[in-house]
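Why this split exists: single-chain examples teach little about how molecules sit against one another. For that reason, every record in the complexes split bundles all components of an assembly together and asks for one structure covering all of them. Below is a record exactly as it appears in the raw files.
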Amino acid sequence: MHVAWLYLGPFLQGTGVTLELTIVSTVVALVAGILGALGMIHGGKILRAVLVVYVELVRGLPPILQLFIIFFGLTQFGVQLDAFSAALIWLMVYGAGYAIEVFRAGIQDVSEGQWEAARSVGMGYFTTLRKIILPQAFALMMPELTNFTVLQLKNTTFVFFIGVADIMYQAQQGAASTEQPQVMFVMAALFYLVLNGGISRVAALVERRLTAYR
Amino acid sequence: MSKDVVVDIQGLTKSFGDRKIFRDVTLQVHQSEVVAIIGPSGVGKSTLIRCVNYLHPFDQGTIRLLGHELRGGERPSAAVLQDIRTHVGMVFQTFNLFHHLSVLDNIVLGPVEVKKVPRKQAVERAHELLEMMGLTDWAKAYPRRLSGGQQQRVAICRALAMDPKVMLFDEPTSMLDPELVGDVLEAIQRLAQQGMTMILVTHEMMFAKEVADTVVIMADNAIAEMGPAKQVLENPQTERARNFLARVLRNTPPADIPQAVVGGDPD
């Protein structure tokens, strides 16, 4: 199995790229998701319409097409992105579209009575959100959020199509140059399973804490 | 408006879309007065008291309280709303405790976040209130571990922690098992004896008679009759009030009439 050892370095480098893409894009997508969901629920007509169109675009277009539009398509308009930036921007845009819907459902699952009770002691909108609604929404949404993060990590593999050196890219390189593609792909599979296993484990711990009150 | 009128409701009218909820409701609540609002379901009793702290907007009329005036069709400023809600306590039919916070934090959160009371002081006050309600041992528990009656008493503590000038009770016992009603009513009665000004929507006729100074009967989306509790309940003058009371009393077997003052813990 010396081939595997030989490629451990590149795979670890790829892991760094995959993790950076996943973590940064997930954090941005979650923040954008909360804001977008609040716009959907409490925003005006125009804002809601814009958000609906956005979500439909993200959900409706194939991931690879979205990525190509950002990386190749934008050059038409003089926007020349390097592959990593294009990859990161696409993952943020894509993740945010899905996160908006996750948070919209989660926030609406918290009963209206919680808002009313918070208002009745004089709490304003943002205090109510921060102290009452979001903590309960997160507890309700943990299964979806775990799923979301795992999917976000798996979606990073698309970036190999524009030449970003993630785990998938390293596996493909190894497969092409060692004539042992099966070893490379099994290695890639193990790397992804370990990373996603880690996400599930951490998420389970967070979920246990968040739902202690139930 | 005479000096001891705390809440002055004039000509209040409200609809949800095409549906009229109530029209032309005029009602004054004086310092330390207990007003009970009774009447059939769906006549807008709950909606009426929710207008007092502006959980619901209304279409026409005015509500004057705490030096503010709320006018139909006009959204009050955030500062006015906060001032009113800080000084008007509300207890809900479904308790609405914050599920993710301990009993203690449910009570402490309002004073700390809204009134900027130092946490230590708010905690001390919360323990006093819990003791008063016989819930000393439950401070650290999450609300869902408590019985309905206990949860409702925590909700009363949460409202009282803000040192309200007026308390609103929206059918506080109608979600409770019969054997848990007594403790909650007892807590409300104690507040009345301490001079709290209260507006109470209730189906507990005997309790209204015993505790309220004034009873308001709503029917057909308006006030059918109001006056001193005993007079209205025992000798109603209007036909709508008589009809309602006749129906209620026929449907209430003696065993179900709650005894207002029953000691002991529901558990």
